[in-house]
Predict the structure.
Amino acid sequence: MTNIAVKVDDLTVAYNYKPVLWDIDLEIPEGVLMAIVGPNGAGKSTLIKSILGILKPLAGSVTIYGKPYNKQRSLVAYVPQKGSVDWDFPTTALDVVMMGTYGSLGWIKRPGQKEKKSALEALEKVGMLAFQSRQINQLSGGQQQRIFLARALVQDAAIYFMDEPFQGVDATTEIAIINILKELRKANKTVIVVHHDLQTVPEYFDWVTFLNVKKIATGPVKDIFNDDNLTKTYGINFKVSVQE
Amino acid sequence: MSSSQIEIQLIASIVAIACAIPGTFLVLRKMAMISDAISHSILPGIVIGFFITQDLNSPVLIILAALTGILTVVLVEYIQKTGLVKEDTAIGLVFPILFSIGVILIAKNANDVHLDVDAVLLGELAFAPFDRMIIGGTDIGPKSLVIIGSILVLTIILLIAFFKELKISTFDAGLAASLGFSPTVIHYGLMTVSSVTTVGAFDAVGAILVVALMIAPAATAYLLTTDLKRMLLLAIVFGVTGAISGYWLAHFLDASIAGSITTMLGVIFFLVYLFAPSKGVIAVIYRERQQRTEVSLLTFLLHLKNHQEEEERHVNHLNEHINWQKVRSKTVVELAQKNNMIVIDNGVVSLTEKGEEFTSLAIDYIITNEDAKIEYMKDDFFLFRG
Ligand SMILES: Nc1ncnc2c1ncn2[C@@H]1O[C@H](COP(=O)(O)OP(=O)(O)OP(=O)(O)O)[C@@H](O)[C@H]1O
Ligand SMILES: [Mg+2]
């Protein structure tokens, strides 16, 4: 029996009146590389934000390794969906990556040489070392995405949440990112990725959750990634059967 | 300079610094309007505080007024959260109401209160040195200097302690929240500092100048740097420069000090907007013009490289062959000559060795995008500054 990394019970979330997530139950085992799939507006980002305590749910609870999120912050890293930061902010790529270390520093303490070193290592890993002193809005979309990945890597977490890390990146970057994610899984980390390209789900991931306001299904890709669940999730007839 | 002149400039400068710090974060958070709202809506807080204490500099009054400032923010956010109106509309709804409550309170009690709306909005810096703070018989300076000085010290301590938290929650509130730095707490902390600064400064410089001192220096600094710390420093420098130059402008024009400082802040912004080295209007125009010339130069050199026949390379025919206006071809030919890339012999243009080499290198660079080879050309050519 493997450990459960993330457990979501009866989660219901609303922004205004109508809930955008209804009664979600979800168990994510340790060490999986999981895709969350579902159409635009399905509540994928909302689910991640509620798990991370950024949004307050109407009902339900979330635990990370059996404890509430605010006790387990240091175990979790998060790459937000791209539009969510201010790209014109006066800061450099290195500085953004350093922000990943703020969590372990806690309030008031400031980052020093040690933090800088691990930030540089992470930049190296994502192949962005040469861009360390660039202003962030002078980076291309794919480069920005790599910076965010580096920022998550310096957090050295046990569980990684990534909201559409492949959005707008080229094939080379996509492969570079997925290789890093697979490495994380090898180190028994749990990686949860919001993903839109259904074609690549079987190739990249070993676990999948179908979401559209309600949870449709969750489990190993080889068992549940099929036309039936895709149709239930996207509401149109799917004929992209899993390739063997 | 008399000592009161020095004191006035000192007060103005300290106010400028105290405003520039929260102002930088307000500008980055695109919340410039909220400082305007706070500066107006603290009026009822000030009036009620004044009724209770009968002293414009009492700490109770400052606290009450700061609370009104925070109330403004809370109300704006509450209205905004209903989703019925946008933030700017919510601001427009809240502060006139609070402000007019203050105005009515003053009007109703005008007989026994020494307080008027003009004093709150415009302040009177010129009289600030005459209101002394005396403790145990010794004069420790103008009251407003002591008050705003204490607020500044507090602001600096908070800034140093929470710099990283302010940075991360301004840049990426989602990440800040997930790391346990509550953006709400930081947001209200910043709002509290902004309110307290506004209240502390209004007596000396008036609410309008407070807004100008919070927003203009930060907006100016934003044009010049890509580093948050430097932006803070520059905002402080511009604020103080505006304060002191504004004081002297007022002195020579015999005009309102607050008005002159605001004018100078505007002038400084405008100058930087025009002359900033990379984002400034003139720099951008110059760069684009230069790049266009450089592209033409390259086209011209390539043409020479590809055509050996004399009639293609004759000065008088260049226009029809490469399709330029006369003016442009003259600049380009001059630029090429200045760089020793061409020689003109009997009206026939040919590439020099240097010109040949430059052309092949440039083509290589454009195709391969490899930086190393053209390192030395970067100083002279905008095109190659990646
Ligand atoms: N801040 C907000 N206020 C109100 N409604 C919101 C807010 N954010 C999201 N929603 C709504 O909640 C629903 C779910 O949004 P969410 O961002 O979770 O979708 P998603 O599955 O991540 O979509 P996408 O694939 O487009 O990123 C959508 O209908 C959206 O309109
Ligand atoms: Mg989303």
Notes: Chain B touches chain A through 26 residues (CB under 8 Å).
